[in-house]
Amino acid sequence: MLEIGLQSRRFDLEHANLNFRGFIPPSPYLDIKATSDLEEIIASVTLTGPLEAPSLGFSSVPSLPGDEILARILFGRDLNSITLQLKQTIDRFTGHGGTGFDPVARIRELTGFDEIRIDPGAEGGAVGVGKYLTDDVYLELEKGHGETSGGANLEIELTPSITLESKIAQDAQTGAGVLWSWDY
To answer: In terms of domains, do 16 and 94 share one?
Structure first.
């Protein structure tokens, strides 16, 4: 299982599904669940629903309210023993106040990727992730719906106007190019 660190808590990824539903272009639908064995409870965090408006859920064994579960995940203490400021933070994450939760930004933060892209318009849909290896080198991995639809792109900025781009597809087809741009 894949483990994800969150505030020094380890979570086992139980499942992570990305489905495409609806008409052309289909709408991406998330179904992600991770669990952590805390001292007194087993906590589960779920991210489900359409990518445009997913729902963040918390559950536990034994059953506790969502804000109590989040308090134990983030601070290792029950809700009554944390300060008012910490309670307001928990309220914002659980949707009881504040500006809410940005799941894509949180996924980028947890995974360390600089970019997460979902392209429902591609043939059957595609998902891509990218990371700047240095200020001038960017690596992107992409996987589509088909068996041979994956690939990797490497971009190297040689100068502010010239970029070298290399691509390799899952079926071993390769390509390279030099891109020139001029800002005026």
So the answer is: yes
27 contacts 50 by C-beta, under 8 angstroms: yes
- Smallest Cα–Cα separation from 151: which of 163, 169, 166, 171? 169
Number of neighbours of residue 68 by Cβ within 10 angstroms: 19
Are residues 8 and 98 part of one domain? Answer: yes
Please state, in angstroms and rounded to a whole number, the distance separating the CA atoms of residues 159 and 75. 46
CA distance 37 to 61: 10
- Angle at which helices 84-93 and 66-75 pack, to 10 degrees? 120
Average pLDDT, the chain: 76
Expressed as residue numbers, the domain containing 124 is 115-180
pLDDT (tens digit per residue) in 148-176: 778 888 888 888 888 888 888 777 777 77
Helix (H) or strand (E) holding 177: strand 174-180
